[in-house]
């Protein structure tokens, strides 16, 4: 009998495998997972992290003979990394891989350096207003072996290269650069007159509360995928590999930590006369890497990327010890009389919040030429239609003209033209400048007239073309200019005398069987705006209706596209995309198989659906059905609208139940047979 019970228990266990979890069990499992997630320490900062090896971090830069360290740290390293991460998340279909070193994935230090000079904040201002071109469009000459930037050829009778210092603004290069821009940046100063992290007037970032908060802020920013820019006076930096009077290194590595390598070098402190401001990029940190210096052990360091090539320090990187950031060391043995700070600032951007994608809502494109490129100054300007009050601002690329680099080539009275030629002839460029700083409220855009002021700044400037463009890159207004342009010796203001309206054609709520390019853009009165509505195969737009929210019906133009003539703010919607009628098969297409040529039962229903897009939603307003005799037959016709999904589920459930019952019945029969067999055998 015991054997019988054992067999029965085994069979019941097998049957239990077929059991479906109840709703209560499923809910319990879900809650358990949620509780597990809720218990995670989201704010905990790991002991080490590095961006090195990620696809978004560019290789080491080599500024060579060009003083563009700020642009190398910010534009090339920090900004490239940020845009790459943004593209990788929001546009995974776009290939963008800075780590490969391919110039088309690297934003150009030459671009921002040429427009801003070497100021840290100045570089950020250019990125906010003009964005940056990639290095395949704008780059210094790169030494083929040393991979360093040059403005002079290594050999040859004519060493200076105009192409290395030209403003690369022909055609639409500046417009393309504006497709990604910065929304802002944060620059935190330490040392000097700044009080952050000070004790008795001495900087102590590792021992003060606000100093430690800054260090944690840097680590958190790195863990979020951001590069942090820093800078100081490079003349005072002392490295672990430096030799003392006994020809011994200053510092000895005692721990590689998590990320370090044997023989890695570190910046251990700073002392001496300060000179030579230099910017670098923080790309990682390790709390456990350690160096012994003057009998004490320094633990923890930031991993810093420099722009002095891969032969410098650790293949272009160096460990910046946390204590090296202190003007007053934690250790008395390292408080030299001439000890000073290593870094005086930290600059933050966030790739998820500070990247602006897309062209400005409105911008002006100016084709202008001059001999001396510094004579050109362009002011975006707008005038209120009612009050005639004007507003304008001076773009940073022109306001920094006194700081534009001369590459050690210009003496008094000499100049560069736009093409980078020294004392060259008149050359033309295409400037694209947005009205971003003037437009604070989108609702007031239509209340203004937009224009541009061109100033020759003490020289001669020729204006060749003036175009007002929207965020789709479309010309919505232009000012007619003489064939050879208009030569200016004094400033002149030009206005686009057109009313500006906003046109919206949203993507949400697309009618079935169609797709289209959505947009929200500004246009001038009288502009013709074609709507490229694509009709899917098997559908037709013969009965399509396209209207504005004010009731205007649009017609097709000569190209077969629905077209709006702008006269007011408008939101566009459409309806009437329908399934095309199926053609009757010809006799020649009939099969020889008589069973396949039998008359087909009529469709179960004919549906006429009229949908309209209003405010991004689809409104199904009318459905008419004619029921045929074949309706009663559950096996006739296909329901293309999915209305049979409920009955399909019911059938599936019934089949599943029948299958389970069948399995149980079979198992029961097996149990009975086994029991009878065992009982007979015992007898």
Structural write-up:
- This protein has 683 residues and is an alpha+beta fold.
- It has 9 helices and 38 strands.
- The strands form 11 sheets. Strands 1, 5, 8, 9, 10, 11, 12, 13, 14 and 15 form a 10-stranded mixed beta sheet that branches. Strands 17, 20, 22, 23 and 24 form a 5-stranded antiparallel beta sheet that branches.
- α3 packs parallel to α5 (120-129) and α4 packs across α5.
- The radius of gyration is 36 Å and the shape is globular.
- Mean pLDDT is 83; it is low at 1-42 and 590-647.
Oligomeric status of the shown chains?
Answer: single chain
Low-confidence stretches: 1-42, 590-647
Query: What is the mean pLDDT?
Result: 83
Number of β-strand runs = 38
Cα(first) to Cα(last) distance is 12 Å
| Overall geometry | globular
| Radius of gyration computed on alpha carbons | 36 Å
The fraction of residues in strands falls at: 25-35%
Please specify the SSE layout and strand pairing.
Layout: H1 2-16, H2 23-38, E1 48-50, H3 69-90, H4 109-116, H5 120-129, E2 141-142, E3 149-150, H6 173-177, E4 180-182, E5 186-189, E6 198-199, E7 202-203, H7 209-223, E8 228-233, E9 237-239, E10 251-255, E11 266-270, E12 277-293, E13 296-305, E14 317-321, E15 345-348, E16 355-357, E17 362-370, E18 377-384, E19 390-392, H8 396-399, E20 427-434, E21 448-455, E22 461-470, E23 475-479, E24 486-488, E25 492-496, E26 500-505, E27 514-516, E28 519-524, E29 528-531, E30 533-535, E31 539-540, E32 545-548, E33 555-556, E34 562-565, E35 570-575, E36 578-579, E37 608-614, E38 617-624, H9 645-682
Parallel strand pairs: 11-14, 26-35
Antiparallel strand pairs: 1-12, 2-3, 4-16, 5-15, 6-7, 8-12, 8-15, 9-11, 10-12, 12-13, 13-14, 17-20, 17-22, 18-19, 18-21, 21-25, 22-23, 22-24, 26-28, 27-30, 29-34, 31-36, 32-35, 33-34, 37-38
Helix pairs in contact: 1-9, 3-4, 3-5, 4-5
